[in-house]
Amino acid sequence: MNISQHTDEDLRRSLGIGRRRFLSTCTAVAAGAVAAPVLGAAPVQAAPRAAAGGNGRSLVPADKRGIILYTVRDAIARDPLSTSLPSGFRGVFEQLARFGYRQVEFAGYGQHPNAPGGASLESVEGAKLLRRWLDDTGLRAQGNHGFIPGSWPLTSSDLDTFKKHLEIANILGMAHMGTGADPTNSRYKADWDVAADKWNALGEIARRAGLKLYTHNHDAAYDFLLDGGPLDAEGRPTRGSGIRKLEYFLSVTDPKLVWLEMDVFWAHVAQYKFRTYTAHDGSTRTNVFDPAGLVTRHDKRYPLFHAKDGVVNTANGMGYDMVPFGTGVIDYTTFFSRVGHRNYHNPMVEQDNAPSAANPAQSLEHAAIGYRNLAALRR
């Protein structure tokens, strides 16, 4: 069944919070939207907040609006016997569906031991239970940040675990299975060649299981590859040709076997951080990263996005501080308009810092704000 969206008053009551605090929370996050300086290839500006029923075509169709459960991990881990707030997978699914979400991305299968199903649902039986709750609430599992073997070549134990996760993903009805880690942390071409071999092999196993294997990346993956120039004491290159690490990975992996999920926030952090490189001849050169441009060049290799927002902070080394989706300065109207394929891409709202010890309802409050602002995007 589909659970309809609630009004503000319904939301406040369902989260068990007072009217004054609910209004103050909404006001505070809305105040985070400020104009930004030019940090990248084009000015980064606060996106206008259009009403959900406004003019123009929705940039994110209703059936593509999702959230990664990492955003509300505190609610999933909450003891249902100690609170009236939504808790555990089942309760959180019900609440997210009320907000209007249609898709979820898992970040593991653990919850509080007192929640229905017990502490760990990382099993065939657990997956069947999760699938029933997803179906009951009208949600679809689109992916998971789960187990990708660290060893290469694969050990038999890692291969068995990987196949178990593929089976769980199929029971849950996922189209994709992935990880929240970069293929390698190295800056050296040889290590990315090894990572490509590994991911091509794992991607073939996933393809045979009917799934697309994807890697989710943070800012470091967009740093420049070291692929030439003088060698260091260990015989490694010290300079680059201007190719970014993930760009190289895309060029040496099979597009039929390896897919990607762009975290748009971290891609903009990379745009701020990694602007110059030392060329093979020792000169300093500028190359400003264009996140949407990378997606358009590689078209449908990006079935998933993390829709995460930020406000400018040039003092923290990243250029941005995270805020609820739609209350920051990252121009998602332009981003989604440029990448196109609105019926193919699956944006997942994410906010790493949504949980709050002082306000146990905060992560779900921010999930509701994120949904509304994702739905409001119009072209």
Automatic annotation (TrEMBL):
Signal peptide: none annotated. One of its GO terms (molecular function) is isomerase activity. Keywords: Isomerase. InterPro entries: IolE/XylAMocC-like (IPR050312), TAT_signal (IPR006311), Xyl_isomerase-like_sf (IPR036237), Xyl_isomerase-like_TIM-brl (IPR013022). Residues 93-353 form the Xylose isomerase-like TIM barrel domain. PANTHER family: HYDROXYPYRUVATE ISOMERASE, INOSOSE DEHYDRATASE. This is Sugar phosphate isomerase/epimerase family protein. The lineage of its organism: Bacteria, Bacillati, Actinomycetota, Actinomycetes, Kitasatosporales.
